[in-house]
Specification:
Blueprint: H1 6-10, H2 15-28, E1 34-35, H3 47-59, H4 73-87, E2 97-100, H5 103-114, E3 120-125, H6 129-137, E4 141-146, H7 162-167, E5 168-173, H8 188-200, E6 203-207, H9 229-232, E7 233-238, H10 239-242, E8 251-255, H11 257-270, H12 276-287, H13 296-313, E9 326-330, H14 333-336, H15 340-351, E10 353-354, E11 356-357, E12 368-372, H16 379-394
Parallel strand pairs: 1-10, 3-4, 3-5, 5-6, 6-7
Antiparallel strand pairs: 2-8, 7-8, 9-12, 11-12
Helix pairs in contact: 3-12, 4-12, 5-6, 5-11, 13-16
Length: 408
């Protein structure tokens, strides 16, 4: 049999494949598993969205036919209306919006649409794996922009070497950020991105699926709000997190018309777009926003407070995030030497609690774990008890054996 694709072989091991294997082992041992690993919402989609889906599937047979790759006009108009109401951003539903089968698909197809082999792509790190995996599959070269806690996990574009900047064609950034939960403190940050993109003639992709999951009065902006943003880039959005519709696979990309046209063209050769009955369900969700979100934000904020406050009581101090459904937790001193992957393995094997190791989001994520707030409210009390147990058992004591680092 011949060798398979070099690009496929270049991909790093997918983080959640290993986590899934560990979960299987835990279930086989009859452990009571508490899964905080993947950002997979446990809340229900809005009832009005489910009702719209059922009615459409039952009574509108034409929606079972092939859809348009760019998305049906009604869906794109609804997106344009939402962008105007939510951000004050005007986008042309005909030229500046394209429907996606979930934003993960769109990010990869964007890379395939605009990159040639060897093109350099700037990616903030730690990062959502699709930001760099899509580049690799498109034959591009990833240049990681370190996101450091000392700078609020914001990109320091001025530190990118000049020769790299001039070779770059595309830049992926994401705020509110997955996995670090960092937010944009001021829209002046976006203005810097626009100036940088214009200076070096590159495309900006701002991945913005967590803009509605914000706490403590913080309101997340859109990259497209700042002057000149549409000249250089696009923004992607998802129904997965805002409306707890992760399994429905529905999202959109909007912004620069040339970039949107390239993505639409690529998709037209590869897929037929999101099913029409799902797009109509998306219309129902967007048109009823913000009421269609229900208590989603309150639920995540309550869980955030319970976990962060509970961890602090046991001596594990974690910054309280202003957005997303995650907690980005620096490993306590007693565990730093073993690394995030070894700690995640130890945690699931000994307690049944599943977390995502920071190293799975790039080398810059080492020293952290990400916890997704996606299980029943009553389970967070149990999770805290298990964290307390493993910390008390391995707390460094005089004469205790040092924890050894295991390969990630």
């Amino acid at each position: 049999m011949p060798e398979f694709s070099d690009r496929l072989n270049l991909l790093p091991p997918y983080l959640f494949t290993r986590i899934t294997q560990l979960k299987k082992e835990a279930y086989a041992k009859k452990l009571d598993v508490i899964d905080l690993g993947m950002g997979n919402p446990d809340q229900h989609p809005p009832k009005l969205v489910i009702d719209r889906l059922c009615d459409t599937v039952q009574h509108h047979p034409s929606t079972h036919r092939y859809p348009q790759a760019k998305g049906m006009p009604k869906f794109r108009r609804s997106i344009a209306s939402w962008m105007e109401r939510r951000f004050g951003v005007s986008v042309d539903p005909e030229r500046e919006v394209v429907a996606l089968i979930g934003s993960k698909e769109g990010l990869a197809h964007l890379a395939m649409s605009v990159l040639n082999p060897g093109d350099v792509v700037l990616v903030g790190e730690p990062s959502y794996p699709a930001h760099f995996n899509g580049v690799i599959l498109a034959g591009g070269e990833v240049y990681s922009i370190p996101l450091n806690p000392s700078n609020g996990f914001l990109p320091e574009l001025e530190k990118i070497p000049e020769k790299i900047a001039r070779r770059s064609k595309l830049m992926f950034l994401n705020y509110p950020n997955n996995p670090t939960t960092a937010v944009i403190p001021d829209k002046a940050v976006f203005k810097d991105w626009v100036a940088y993109a214009k200076k070096y003639d590159l495309i900006v992709c701002h991945d913005n699926p967590y803009c509605e999951l914000t706490f403590d009065g913080y309101v997340a902006p859109s990259f497209l709000e700042v002057e000149g943003a549409k000249d250089v880039g696009i923004e992607s959005h998802s129904f997965s997190k805002t409306f707890s519709m992760a399994g429905w696979r529905l999202g959109w990309m909007c912004g620069n018309a040339r970039v949107i046209a390239a993505v639409e063209k690529f998709k037209s050769f590869l897929d037929y777009g999101a099913p029409t009955f799902l797009q109509l369900s998306g219309v129902a969700a967007l048109d009823a926003w913000p009421e269609s979100m229900g208590s989603t934000v309150k639920v995540y904020q309550k869980r955030r407070d319970q976990m962060v406050d509970g961890m602090a009581k046991m001596g594990w101090v974690i910054p309280k995030p202003q957005a997303t459904m995650y907690i980005w937790a620096p490993l306590p001193e007693a565990f730093k030497s073993m690394g995030s992957m070894a700690f995640a393995e130890k945690l699931i094997r000994e307690t049944g609690v599943v977390v995502a190791p920071g190293v799975g989001f790039g080398d810059a994520g080492e020293g952290y774990i990400r916890m997704a707030l996606v299980t029943h409210d009553k389970r967070f009390h149990d999770a805290l008890l298990r964290f307390k147990k493993i910390m008390s058992e391995t707390r460094e004591k005089p004469g205790a054996r040092k924890l050894e680092r295991k390969p990630a």
